[in-house]
Amino acid sequence: MDRHQVQRVGFILLAVVAAIVVIPILIVIGIIAVEGAGAISWEFLTAMPRDGMRAGGILPAIVGTLWLTLGTALVAIPIGVGGGIYLAEYARDNLLTRAIRLAIINLAGVPSVVYGLFGLGLFVLLFRFGTSILAGSLTLAIMTLPIIISTTEEALRAVPTEFRTVSASLGGTRWQGIRRIVLPQAMPGVITGVLLGLLRAAGETAPILFTVAAFFLPRLPQSPFDQTMALPYHLYVISTQVPAMPDEIKYGTALVLLTLVLSMNVVATLIRSTYRRRREW
Q1: Within the chain, where are the H helices?
Q2: Does residue 26 belong to any structural domain of this protein?
Q3: In a domain? residue 92
Q4: pLDDT reported for residue 31
Q5: 75 and which of 141, 201, 225, 246 could share a cystine (Cβ 3.0–4.6 Å)?
Q6: How many CB atoms lie within 10 A of CB 211?
Q7: Is the pLDDT of residue 280 over 70?
Q8: b/e map of 95-118 (b: 16 or more CB within 10 Å)?
């Protein structure tokens, strides 16, 4: 078998593996779309829940999810990107930084329920934030930080050293080179890390179960110190805790959550593609 045949066999195997991964996902999305499309209406998206969540809409859950995602982004993005910049551009390669990197990798694999218990003990009880959007956002931010830090560091390290050398030769400081040259070149990878972190935060149930989510709260939150409903927890509740819940409402809620997550993905992909076209290497 010559190398062209080996290459052809390799491509076929990769295509089969890709199909094995993608086809079940498409089937699941198709089932959710078909079963939940009947529940989607203006009332379902804009009304308050009523009759024990068997009727009305899911507006508080949608708004609560947006609140939590925004709060997570405001906390996690500056700290995560800043941490990645420090580790990639400023930190020396010594025992301390290696220990920090190992800790970040390990934290990325910690189950989300552990973060929920941590947020309960630290933000809800110790800092006395109560079960609130603030406590939930901080908990989700801590959970997403390892992803953002790791991907930011790797994206910055992937930028060729020549960019830094040219900046320094022109008299620029290290920070000027990072801010104006290195970081824009690494932006597609940074956006990918931010996207992965926020998508995970938007779909998590365990952390918000302990820190913010309400079982039934037919009103909109007025401040970061309010409790709120959220789509992941709302979907869990109506699927497991509410008897005689119509399947159409369950699938409709899942479809709204899926649409919200995919919309965030599309927006981030467009932004990432814009920066990728501007990249000079």
Answers
A1: 3-36, 42-46, 59-85, 95-108, 112-119, 133-157, 161-169, 174-177, 183-203, 206-211, 231-240, 247-278
A2: no
A3: yes
A4: 93
A5: 141
A6: 30
A7: no
A8: eeeeeebeebeebeeeebeebbbb
Mean pLDDT of 36-62: 89
Task: Lowest mean pLDDT of 24-28, 120-124, 186-190, 266-270, name the range.
Answer: 266-270
Please tell me the total count of domains within the chain: 1
pLDDT at 35: 92
CB 150 within 8 A of CB 245: no
Q: Is residue 11 part of a domain?
A: no
The full length of the chain comes to 281
| pTM to 2 decimal places | 0.90
SS3 40: coil
Average pLDDT value for residue range 226-243: 90
Q: Which residues contact 90 (CB under 8 A, 6 or more apart)?
A: 174
Structure tokens at 87: 């580790």
Whether 33 is in a domain gets the answer no
The single residue listed with the structure tokens 């949608």 is 62
- Cα separation, 144 vs 138, in Å, equals 10
Q: What is the rounded distance in angstroms from the CA atom of residue 116 to the CA atom of residue 138?
A: 10
Instruction: Give pLDDT, residue 120.
Output: 94
Domain of 267 in residue numbering reads as 40-278
Kindly give the interhelix angle for 59-85 and 247-278, rounded to the nearest 10 degrees: 30
User: Residue 63 maps to which CATH number?
Assistant: 1.10.3720.10
Residues 6+ apart with CB under 8 A from 96: none
